[in-house]
Amino acid sequence: MSSAVIVKNLSKTYPVQFPRIKTWLGLKFNPPVQALKNVSFEIQEGEIFGLIGRNGAGKTTLTKIIATLVQPTSGQVLVKGFDSVKDEVKVRELIGLAVAEERSFYWRLTCEQNMMFFARLYGMSDKQARKKTQELFERLGLTELARRRFSELSTGNKQRLAVARALLADPQILLLDEPTRSLDPLAAAQMRALISNLKNVSILLTSHNLSEVEELCDRVAVISHGEIKDVDTPSNLRLRHKQTQKVTIIFSHKGGLPLPPMLNQAQLEEVDSAKKISFFHEIGDELLNDVLVYLINNGAKIRDVETRKGTLLDVLETLERNN
User: Do residues 156 and 225 both lie within one domain?
Assistant: First the structure.
């Protein structure tokens, strides 16, 4: 499978503005900020590639560099073989970008007028623009808002319009920064369905909704303090970094049954006519088996056993602790 986007040894440092003047004036200032440090990964053709990390980890800076809005300090980004710095015009023709808190729309224009304006910048005819706008508005649930001014839209609807604009010119690469942010549950589900059904598009998706990333993404990169800590499929990341698992056992017992002696930290509570015990154990150990044997040997009737699988949150927490 060929690569749609190649990021090679990418670094970005934001220097101090006017350091000599600030020093001369006796003003205090923070040192230069290194937003990205030697970042490398590839996004394959047709892949939905997730990027997760805490606020300030470097996700937005990385997205803007790929979109040619920010130039790297060192390293290189290739989009379909074109350099993001040397061939920025060609790269922009290939990319659709939708970022959270979009501010480049014209607030006094309606949604439809905004789309027509940007369509002309793409070189589309009025007929093409109207047809594509109508199609996108129907897919994103914006048809009833077509003649409403951008300034009158809710935050969620502004986000949907940003995604519609990103798809306007049928880009080959789609950069989505928190596409479901501020959307209600139904609109968010509709957005996820739209993203997953896009064909012949390679997608970079950043989000703080880790269950959403796990649902949509073929592979995920974890970024922390400007560095890529790991890249793999969501399932492989969970297997590699998840060390403990939460278990909940619901059982019934005629008499009073004390906590299994092998459990040091557990919660026992009444649930209707049954009892529920919850505890954590290391994956691969014998603790769960030992607890079940203890309960059964002491006359307990097991009603249910629930285990909480590892999530991308566990992966993120593990990598942050080890940073």
Answer: yes
